[in-house]
Amino acid sequence: MLLFCRKTGLSIEYDENNNYFQFHKLFVCNDISQYHYYGYVYVNNNILFFGGFSNNKSAVSKLVHRYSIQEREWVTFKHTLPIPLYKCSGILNEDSTYIHIIGGTDDKNSIVSTHVKTKVNALMDVLQLSKHELTIVIQHWIRISKIKLGWINDFSKIIIKYIRGFELLMVLQGHSSTVNSVRFSADSPKIVSASDDNTVRIWDIASGKQLQIFRGHTDRVIAARFSPDGHTVVSYSSDGTIRLWSVSTGIKVMKFKRDFKILDLEFSPNGEYIISVFQDNTIQIWDVHSGIEMKQISKYSKDTLNTQFSPDGKMVISSNDKTISLWDIKSGETLKQFKDHSNRVTRTKFSPDGKCIVSCSLDKTIRIWNIETEREWKTLKGHSGHVNDVKYFPDGKFIVSCSNDNTIRLWNVDSGIELQTLKGHYHFVTCVDVSRNGNIIVSGSRDCKIRIWRS
């Protein structure tokens, strides 16, 4: 038997034949502890909670929570119920394959005759979830006040939603000024960071320890990247230099000097070349081993802020002002352009399969573009400040972004739904990256801290 009321939960076991009685107090997470009159159902060592009413907020919830008794872990599902509900009942069918949520009272304090049917597997297997099929049948639902009862036949639908959840693992402290960039190594045990304190630092993810400090830049370091093999770090600074460092020794192995400000820099996928953007309106490709300039593209518009190789290394994307351009590496010709942002584009990235581009902007939006059709596919809205960085997960199903609203946000690519907001930084979040296995997010901020988040 299970009993719940606000902050208290009890699991009671009683066997009359063997004269056995035992009970355990269950931990209730903060999200649901403020609610009561929620529905709940037990299935496969998990308890699912639906809706609820909060006296403190005078609000009705539409969230679904899952508590794993074995793992003692809570998961929150966003936007799961079609309407806010409390005093509803959760019923499991005979073969434990479907959950039915029946009846309840909505946020207008009106009793509704509601039937929500959802697959158990979709809610239980949260980390492996690919599709969440939700079928809703509403017989007599008052959508807004003074609207008569009746059928709403067009409400049944399938909501495609990939669920991920992250929590703060650790905070890395060492930089004394704004962290401008953070990047994982290819095998993901390390991250490299660059800061306004003129240093580049390498950190161990498992322990949180600082492994190396690269000193030599005489001005703020804008960014640092690992080479694909993880043996080298490249950094660039407002001092006008690009420097290559040995990860194992911490020694500078090469230095490039330019008269013009460096705006962005990336390794090619094979690690043989570096592409860099300069303030004199040129994009240059360098040989990593010799330091010789292999190619220069000087046809792009001014104010180009960032660039990246495509996964196959044959194309490059760059952004300037409100426009994203796709370039052919061999010819240096512009292949396509993407225009829809209403303010400056701050970052562009290819999808892992190279078929799409994701961009973020000072207009507070994130946009996904289909390269073949040259059209915007989706616009993701939710940030309340400038969006500074964006990155695809390795599987291409999720996107993570960061903003001047001090948050990191997780998005589902197919549905465009915001899945989670990560809060913890005390100032603008300037940069973000995802580990190769997609289980760890790293973020850097103007608060001088690096935060590690795990799923």
Automatic annotation (TrEMBL):
Signal peptide: none annotated. Residues 160-429 form the Transcription factor spt8 beta-propeller domain. Keywords: Repeat, WD repeat. PANTHER family: TRANSCRIPTION INITIATION FACTOR TFIID (PTHR19879), TRANSCRIPTION INITIATION FACTOR TFIID SUBUNIT 5 (PTHR19879:SF9). This is WD repeat-containing protein. It comes from the Eukaryota. SUPFAM superfamilies: Kelch motif, WD40 repeat-like. InterPro entries: Beta-prop_SPT8, Kelch-typ_b-propeller, WD40/YVTN_repeat-like_dom_sf, WD40_PAC1, WD40_repeat_CS, WD40_repeat_dom_sf, WD40_rpt. It comes from Reticulomyxa filosa. WD repeats lie at residues 172-213, 214-255, 262-296, 297-337, 338-379, 380-421, 422-455. The keyword Repeat applies.
